[in-house]
Amino acid sequence: MSEFSATIASALNIKAAQVEAVLNLLDEAATIPFIARYRKDKTGGLDEVQIQQIQDQSKLLKEFSERKTFIEKTITEQGKITDALQLAINKATTLAELEDIYLPYKTKRKTKAQTAKENGLEPLSALLLEQKDIDILVEANAFINEKIKSPDEALQGARDIIAELINEDAIVRAKLRKLFEDTASLQSKVLTDKETEAIKYKDYFDFSEAIYKIPSHRILAVLRGFLEGFLRMSIAPLEEDALALIEKQYITASLNSSVEQVKKAIKDAYKRLLQPSLETEFRTALKTKADEEAINVFAENLKQLLLSSPLGSKRILALDPGYRTGCKVVCLNEKGDLQTNDVIYIHEANKKYDAEYKIKELVAKYDIEVFAIGDGTAGRETEQFIKQMQLGKPIFLVNEDGASVYSASEIAREEFPEYDVTVRGSVSIGRRLMDPLAELVKIDPKSIGVGQYQHDVNQFRLKERLDQTVVSCVNQVGVNLNTASKHLLSYVSGIGATLAENIIKHRNDIGKFTDRSQLLKVPRLGGKAFEQCAGFLRIKEANNPLDASAVHPEAYKIVEKIAKDLNTEIRSLIGNENLLKQIEPKKYITEEIGELTIKDILNELKKPGLDPRSELEQFEYANIFSMEDVKVGMVVPGVVTNITRFGAFVDIGVKQDGLVHVSEIAHQYITDPSEVLKLNDKVQVKVLEVDTARKRIALSIKQTLEAPSRSKKAEVRSTKPSPQKDLSELNLNDALSALKNKFKS
C-alpha cells in the first residue's frame, strides 16, 4: 500500500483501499475520466472530483515527504542532528513546521547577528538572556575591541544575536502563526497623491478585514492594487498582542536593565524579522487561497459553458454583425462544413433591400433551417433585421466571446487557409450553436470570458485546472470518431495531439471508421491507448451497434452473453427496457468486471450514446437595445453569462451585462451564487440601478420571485452539502492550515 493512502483516505473520508486503487491506476497511466467511468469496481465508484483530489493530495504529500528528507539530510550533513531535532522533524505535519525547524540551519546571507558573533558578542547576549539585575554598561565595556567601539555598540550586537535567536525559535513562530491565523487583518491604504489615478480601487483606500474571513475576490483586488502601485498593504495582528506573546516565552524576571535589553531585542525581532516574514508567508497563503477559489469559479463556469445545450446537425446561416464593415454571412451544412460566404449591409438604407434579397436567396439555395447571430456589436439590430423578414426560421443569438481569438489562431488558419478572419469568425459562431463543446475546445479558455481575476492568478495552475475541465467535459459527452476535429480528439482520454493527428490521417485514408478495433491500426495507437480512449469514441452506423455507445469494447462479451441468455440480438436488446429489466447484474460479474460496471452497461443500453447535455431552447430578449433603454424598476428576461463568488452577470440584451449581487439572487441566505444559478440559465431580473457613465447595471432576481415559506427555507438549509475535508494544510503555502474549515464554511 502507498505510504500516503491512509493519510489521504482519512482526509477525504474514503477507504484506504479506494485511494490505493486510484494511485495504482494513475501509476499505470490511466486517465481520470477512464478511471471514473470504467474502473468503478476497483475504486468503489469514486467520481472524477474525488479521483482528482486523490491525485492532488498525493502530489502534495510527495512534495512534503521529499522536503522532509532533504531537511533531515542537510542537517545531518552539517553534523548538527540530535535526537530532539530528529523527533521534531518526524512529528512535523506541515511544511511551515518543517521550515521553522530548518530555519537555523539554512545557508543565508550575512546577518547582523552573525557579524555580532564574529565580534565576540555571543557571551554578552547569553548574559542578557539570564536576565539578572546587573550593571549592563560595566558588562558591555568588557567587550570593547577594535571593531566594537562603545558599550552601546556591544549591547546592540548582543540584541541582534537575541533577535535572531527569537526569529529562529520554532515555538515562537508557531505561536505567532496561530495569532496571525486567529486575529490578523489585511489592511490597505491608498498611496499619497494616487487617489485620482487609483479611483477603481476606491473601496480599498482605507480598508481592513480579518484574514480568516476575507473573500477571494477582495484579496485579489487588494493585491492587484498593491502590485500596480496604488495601495499600501499589510497583514498583521495587533503589535502589542504579538510582543506580549513573545515576552511570555522569553521574559523570566522582573523588570531590570537586562530585561529591558531583552525586551528591546524582542521588539526588534518582531518588527524587523518575524512580522515581515510572517506577512510574506500569509500574503502568499492568502494569494494561493484566492487563486484556488478564482480558479474553481472559472473551472465550474467553463464546465457549464462547454456543456451548453447543442442545437445538433442543422443547416445554419451564421452572421457576424457589424456596422461600417457590414455583416459577414456564412452558410454551413449539417456537418458544419462551409458552403459559401458573403457580406451584407443592413445599416445603410440604400443597401438594405439588397441585403434582404441576398439572405432570402441563401436561405432557399442552401435550404437553411436556422439563423445564428453573434451577440456582440450590432447583434440585436441584426436579429431585428432577420425577424422582420418573417422567414419562419428559428433565430439564435450566440455568445461570440473568443470567436475573434479563434479566427486569428493557428487552428483556424489550418482549417480555413484560404479565408480571412471575418469568415472564420462567422463559421465559429455557426458551429458554436451547432455544438458548443466541439467549437469551444479550439479556443484558449481564458479568452471565453467566464472567469474571475483570471489574469491575476497562478497561470500554471489555471491552465492545469482548465485543461482538466476540458478533458472531463469532452469525455463526459463522448466524441464522434468520424466527424471530430483533430483538436477535439486530442482531449479524448489517452490520445493527445500526436495520436489525434494520426487518427485524422488514418480516417482520411480509409474513408471512415466502421469498427472501434480499426483504431489499433492507427500508427502509434497501441493497446494501452486503445483501452483508455475506445469507450469515449462513438461510431454511428457502425458494424457493431455497441460502437455507438459508451460500452467499452472490453465489456462486449458481457453484452453478447446477456443477449444470448435472453435469446435475442444485441440490436434488439439496445433500448428495450422490458428486456433490460429482466437482467440480474450479479449473474454477469467476472474477475475483471464487477457489479458497478454491469449496472453502468445496462444503463447505457437503455439509451446508448445519449448526449448528457440538455436540449437547446430559444430565448427572447425584451424590446430594449441599449443602456439608454434600461429604466429602474423594469422586469426583463436575461441569460446568466458569468458567475463569480460575489454575484452573477446577466445579459439582458443591451451589450452591457448587469450584475446581480449575491444578496439579490435568492430569498434564502446563500454565500455562493452557484448554489442556485448555472451558466446559461434563463432568468427574470428587476433593474435596481443604471449607471451609464460607468456602464454598470445593478439587477435583482429575488425581487422577481415570491418569498418561500418557512418550511421551504428549512428544506433549502437542510439540503446544503457539508464541506469536505482536504489536505490543504500540506500545501506549500500552508500558513492558513488551521483555518481551512472556516474558509470552506
What does this structure look like?
- 47% of the residues lie in helices and 11% in strands.
- It has 745 residues and is α/β, with parallel strands linked by helices.
- The chain folds into five domains: 5-76, Arc Repressor Mutant, subunit A, CATH 1.10.10.650; 112-302, Tex N-terminal region-like; 316-434, Nucleotidyltransferase, domain 5 (2-Layer Sandwich); 496-606, Orthogonal Bundle (DNA polymerase, domain 1), CATH 1.10.150.310; 627-707, Nucleic acid-binding proteins (OB fold (Dihydrolipoamide Acetyltransferase, E2P), Beta Barrel).
- It has a five-stranded mixed beta sheet with strand order 6-5-4-7-8, with helices on both faces.
- Helix 1 crosses helix 2 (16-27) and helix 8 (112-118) crosses helix 11 (151-167).
- The longest helix is centred in the middle third of the chain and has 50 residues, at 257-306.
- The chain is globular and about 105 Å long.
- Residues 713-745 have low confidence and may be disordered.
Architecture blueprint of SSEs:
Layout: H1 5-12, H2 16-27, H3 32-38, H4 40-43, H5 48-77, H6 83-91, H7 95-102, H8 112-118, H9 122-129, H10 136-141, H11 151-167, H12 170-183, E1 185-190, E2 206-210, H13 216-227, E3 231-236, H14 239-250, H15 257-306, E4 316-320, E5 327-332, E6 338-344, H16 349-365, E7 370-374, H17 379-388, E8 395-398, H18 403-407, H19 410-415, H20 421-434, H21 436-440, H22 459-477, E9 479-480, H23 486-489, H24 496-510, H25 527-533, E10 537-538, H26 556-565, H27 570-573, H28 577-581, H29 595-606, E11 635-643, E12 647-651, E13 658-661, E14 682-691, E15 696-700, H30 710-718, H31 740-744
Parallel strand pairs: 4-7, 7-8, 9-10, 13-15
Antiparallel strand pairs: 1-2, 1-3, 4-5, 5-6, 11-12, 11-14, 12-13, 14-15
Helix pairs in contact: 1-2, 1-5, 2-5, 5-7, 8-11, 9-11, 11-15, 12-14, 13-15, 14-15, 15-22
